[in-house]
Amino acid sequence: AGVIDGECFYTGRPVRFGYMYIDAVNEPFSEDELYRSLEGMRGHEFHYYDSTVNGEACTAVKPGKEKKRNCMIVRNNGIWGFPHFYYDSVPGFVDCFIERMKQKSRIQR
User: Fold this and answer.
1) What is the SS3 assignment for 83?
2) What is the helix (H) or strand (E) element at residue 95, kind and residue range?
3) How many Å is the maximal CA-CA distance in the chain?
4) Helix, strand and coil in the chain, % to nearest 5
5) Spatial separation of the C-alpha atoms in residues 43 and 49, rounded to whole Å
6) How is residue 63 annotated by DSSP?
7) In terms of Cα–Cα distance, which of 65, 54, 63, 60 is closest to 26?
8) Least enclosed by CB within 10 Å: which of 1, 11, 13, 65?
9) Residue pair 72/38 in contact by the 8 Å Cβ criterion
């Protein structure tokens, strides 16, 4: 769609397979309450595609291995990345997301 600079490509095998959690939201995104609320979010990844631009907004950790990597792109109220999040692991994120959407709705009216 041309929204993100970079290319996606088929790898032929699972990439970053398994469980993960967001350990930290990196600067400058940590100043924003919505993005900061991603900290502690659990999820998993299982896909056969990768990207030349996976983002640097958050640090993801594989539980038990403590293997860390940068992930997620955040921009213009958008959050993009490969992780499939378990939103119930951080209910505050859902609350922040809903509040942000209400704010944007009021602004656009």
Assistant:
1) coil
2) helix 91-108
3) 48
4) 25, 45, 30
5) 17
6) T
7) 60
8) 1
9) yes
Q: Tell me the residue length of the chain.
A: 109
Of 55, 53, 8, 48, the residue nearest 29 (C-alpha): 55
Per-residue pLDDT of the chain (109 residues; tens, 9 = 90+): 777 888 889 999 988 889 999 999 999 988 899 999 999 999 999 889 999 999 999 999 999 887 899 999 988 778 889 899 999 999 999 999 999 889 877 766 5
Helix (H) or strand (E) segment spanning residue 107: helix 91-108
Looking up tokens 């995104």 gives 29
In degrees to the nearest 10, what's the CA dihedral of 55, 83, 7, 12? 140
